[in-house]
Write a structure and sequence with these properties.
Layout (H helix, E strand, L loop, with lengths): L5 E5 L3 H8 L7 E5 L2 H10 L4 E4 L5 H11 L5 E5 L5 H6 L4 E4 L5 H6 L2 H23 L3 E6 L4 E4 L12 E2 L5 E2 L2 H4 L4 H4 L2 H17 L3 E9 L6 E11 L5 E10 L1 H27 L1 H17 L2 H26 L8 E4 H9 L8 E5 L3 E4 L1 H18 L8 E6 L6 E5 L27 H12 L2 E6 L5 E6 L7
Parallel strand pairs: 1-2, 1-3, 3-4, 4-5, 14-16
Antiparallel strand pairs: 6-7, 6-12, 8-9, 10-11, 11-12, 13-15, 16-17, 17-19, 18-19
Length: 473
């Protein structure tokens, strides 16, 4: 149940007026106070909708002190011979009533519309304050120039940090920090330009924007996404004075969507391998088995064994690809040099040489990083099997970015094939499964890394991994 409006009446006749007021049912409560100090105490203790000052030598001082104590308080001055309207209004009174010889009780009753209006405004203000202080969303009001007029407590902490950090390094922690600023003061220029364009479109067309998705920070896979809705803000006359917006963090949903996309992509690749790559060696084995039953030639059994080995390799790679899915959520600090040397120890490297020149420590899943190096090493060794001289593979840090590379001095990858080498089934080796490099890309995607293929200094292939996270980043 809502409280009835309350009016404080200050004047030398306060006691008498209050006694008469309480004798009947009235439209609002009245508290009469003769002393100026008591008025200020009352304003501090209760939600007062209106202060009526009805004379006395200190009336203007009371008006000044009341406005300073409760900004925006509705103050009505009952004028008498010694006080005019201009002076009262100059001191912050909202209304001046020349009561003369009129009954003060009747004059108070005539103020019902003023009191009710302010009471409703006060109620709306407290409702808005409660909303802005407690709702776990970024809510904001902007004027026609896209300056923030009022924002929710949550607004400065919508991003991953409990503050907004502007492009010039300023940090804004509280709603008060943000009020008066535009998006250009708070966000990168491209994001601010897009937001202001939306603001002006909403203000001019009076058409709302509903759940517009924006990528605000980080990579497309594991970055921050928000959904924004904006609508016109109207004043009491129905004129558009700005807009009200609501922004909510949907990063978890978007990251889940990306995860589903990657999983669907892996399922499609699995289906391709099972329907095509496995069918070829299976048909060879079945055909050779029929011939073996007819003539018993041992050559057929050798061919069957090769087909079965080929199928076993394909199945193993498909299972490995399935295990490497998903996003790495709890990475460890791993030295690139250590991971590379450990992976080299488990591949059949023959006469090849590994050169490691890396001081980089990355945040990664140790087993997946090891698998990435193993597949890159095997890929280089397989394609250099017919070389007369020994292959050299180099693992080093990127010169101009945070990341690492794996390069060799082998035959390299033609430029027109570099966009497809990571596709499932792509292989230039006769006995390749076409899944090794696809597994490499899957591991990189799971970590949020960017992988590109170029030519190495030695003319071979060079795989570069960027956007790599370190313990310091």
């Amino acid at each position: 149940m809502q409280k009835a409006p309350l009016v404080v009446y200050h004047g030398p006749d306060a006691t008498a007026v209050t006694e008469r007021w309480d004798q009947q049912r009235r439209p609002f409560g009245l508290r009469g106070l003769s002393a100026a100090d008591d008025v200020l105490d009352a304003l501090a203790e209760a939600d007062v909708d209106c202060l009526v000052c009805a004379g006395g030598e200190d009336v203007l001082a009371v008006v000044d002190d009341a406005q300073a104590s409760v900004p925006g308080l509705q103050v009505v001055v009952f004028g008498r011979e010694d006080l005019d309207a201009a002076t009262a209004l100059e001191h912050g009174a909202a209304h001046f009533v020349d009561v003369g010889e009129d009954d003060p009780v009747e004059t108070l009753e005539a103020l019902q519309s003023v009191v009710d209006r302010h009471h409703a405004q006060h109620r709306d203000r407290t409702m808005l304050d409660s909303l802005l202080e407690n709702i776990p969303l970024s809510v904001y009001f902007k004027d026609r120039d896209s300056r923030h007029v009022e924002v929710s407590d949550e607004m400065p902490s919508t991003s991953a940090n409990p503050y907004i950090e502007s492009p010039d390094g300023c940090r804004y922690h509280t709603p008060e920090d943000v009020v008066g600023l535009t998006d250009f003061d708070l966000y990168p220029p491209e994001l601010a330009e897009s937001a202001m364009a939306d603001d002006q479109r909403v203000i001019e067309s009076e058409e709302p924007v509903v759940d517009q998705v924006e990528h605000t920070h980080g990579s497309a896979v594991d970055g921050t996404y928000v959904a924004t809705s904006k609508a016109p803000w109207y004043d009491e006359q129905g004129d558009v004075v700005g807009l009200v917006g609501v922004t909510r963090d949907i990063s978890e949903r978007k990251q889940y969507e990306h995860q589903l996309e990657r999983q669907n992509g892996r399922l499609e690749r699995f289906a391709g391998v099972l329907s095509h790559d496995l069918r070829n060696p299976l048909e060879v084995a079945q055909g050779r088995l029929r011939l073996a039953r007819e003539d018993g030639d041992p050559e057929h059994f050798d061919a069957i064994e090769r087909s079965l080995d080929r199928m076993d390799d394909l199945v193993e790679d498909v299972l490995r690809l399935a295990r490497q899915g998903g996003t790495v959520t709890e990475p460890d600090a791993v030295a690139v040099a250590t991971a590379a040397r450990d992976a080299w120890d488990v591949v059949d490297s023959g006469d090849a040489t590994l050169v490691v020149d890396s001081d980089l420590v990355v945040l990664a899943d140790p087993s997946r990083l090891a698998q990435l190096f193993e597949n890159l090493f095997r890929n280089a060794l397989e394609h250099a099997a017919d070389r007369p001289d020994a292959l050299t593979i180099t693992v080093a840090d990127l010169r101009d970015a945070r990341g690492f590379l794996v390069a060799d001095d082998g035959v390299g990858i033609p430029e027109d094939e570099r966009d497809t080498v990571f596709d499932a089934g792509f292989s230039t080796a006769d006995d390749g499964t076409g899944l090794g490099l696809n597994i490499v890309r899957t591991i990189a995607d799971a970590h949020g890394w960017q992988v590109t293929v170029t030519e190495s200094d030695g003319g071979g292939a060079c795989f570069q991994f960027g956007n790599v996270h370190t313990p310091e980043s």
